[in-house]
Specification:
Length: 358
């Protein structure tokens, strides 16, 4: 009996060593099995899809928008499944999947702009391993639409035609159509012309002239001198002291007068009323060409243009263009490519804006 008791501690030590070794082998086996868990990576050919513009008949796709097409290629890279054919199951939040296997096509035609997700689950039906799951998102945009810029060849007008496309202006502003519409009944271009002309007269512009533009007109004001810091007119007769060529003088006398004119800032307003969207050309109007507008235009709007309906539904609008010139001492006035003042600021400074808003 004493001999058995003496061996008991030794037996306990051996048993503990065997148990510890078994636990270590079990942990090692677990780590090895975890490293071989099935996994899948889902790759997409592009992350941003740009669809073709869906424009109504009256509009065209915007320039500069590049379509990518409506399809995305999906590639599933599966690992850790062992031997045997794998089963790939795809799902999406928009569009449809065509094809099968590890390489399929995601068709996003017809979806609305937004973010969409494609997911894949990979399993091995012949093995009792759990499947693997992966997903990727794609952003879908659509090219925008815009009104076409119409560059028509208008029929010979009953009054002189204003340059079209329009010469490059220094600033511009859209006039609110509500200010030009009659309170009741149909509004015609003669009504719009009368409102614009009355606002100009109330602001001090007593001389105006009319030109034809495609299915509309251009109303040109007299030149005025203004303060460059706040766009307000120069006070007194100097406001209208803009060099003009007297009939008795020749071109050389007019050129000399340009160089001796008062230094400062000058401007002319041109109101364009048409139903067509337009752009501005690279044409630079000289100071002489700008001052000649007042004398070369018609003194009234003819009936064939005045009878046209000013229909906002048809796209009619009024845009004020500002042609600004700067005169430095000893030099002729030159066109300012981009005014430091916005178009509305010019209209407010001259007083035209408040008379239109009444």
């Amino acid at each position: 009996m004493p001999t058995r008791i003496a061996y008991l501690p030794l037996l306990l030590m051996v048993f503990g060593f065997v148990l510890n070794q078994s636990n270590c082998d079990s942990k090692s086996s677990t780590k090895q099995n975890n490293s071989k868990q099935p996994q899948v990576l889902l790759n997409v050919s592009i992350r941003r899809v740009v669809l073709a513009a869906d424009c109504p008949p009256s509009e065209i796709p915007s320039e500069g928008c590049t379509e990518t097409g409506s399809t995305v290629e999906l590639t599933s890279d599966a690992k850790g499944f062992g031997s045997g054919q794998l089963l790939y199951t795809y799902s999406t939040t928009g569009g449809r999947i065509t094809g099968e296997g590890s390489n399929v096509t995601w068709d996003l035609s017809g979806v609305q702009p937004g973010t969409y997700t494609a997911s894949v689950e990979v399993t091995n039906p012949k093995k009792r391993t759990r499947g693997a799951f992966a997903s990727m998102t794609v952003t879908v945009d659509r090219c925008a639409c815009e009104q076409p810029i119409f560059q028509p060849t208008p029929p010979p007008p009953s009054i002189p035609a204003f340059p079209w496309p329009l010469p490059d202006a220094s600033a511009q502003a859209r006039i609110q159509s509500e200010w030009l519409l009659n309170s009741d009944g149909v509004t015609r271009l003669r009504d719009v012309s009368a409102r614009l002309d009355r606002a100009l007269h109330n602001a001090g512009f007593q001389e105006t002239s009319w030109f034809a533009v495609p299915e509309g007109f251009a109303l040109v004001s007299r030149f005025e001198q203004f303060r460059g810091n706040n766009a307000s007119p120069v006070v007194g007769p100097a406001r209208w002291a803009v060099t003009a060529k007297p009939p008795s003088e020749g071109p050389s006398d007019y050129t000399r007068a340009l160089f001796t004119a008062n230094p400062g800032f000058y401007r002319v307003f041109v109101f364009i009323v048409t139903k067509y969207a337009f752009n501005q050309s690279d044409q630079q109007i000289t100071f002489k060409e700008g001052t000649d507008w007042l004398n070369r235009g018609a003194d009234a709007l003819p009936n064939d243009i005045g009878e046209i309906e000013f229909s906002v539904r048809d796209g009619y609008k009024c845009t004020a263009l500002v042609y600004e010139y700067q005169k430095l001492a000893g030099s002729a006035p030159t066109l300012v490519g981009q005014s430091v003042h916005q178009g509305q600021k010019h209209l407010e400074g001259s007083g035209i804006w408040r008379h239109l808003a009444r």
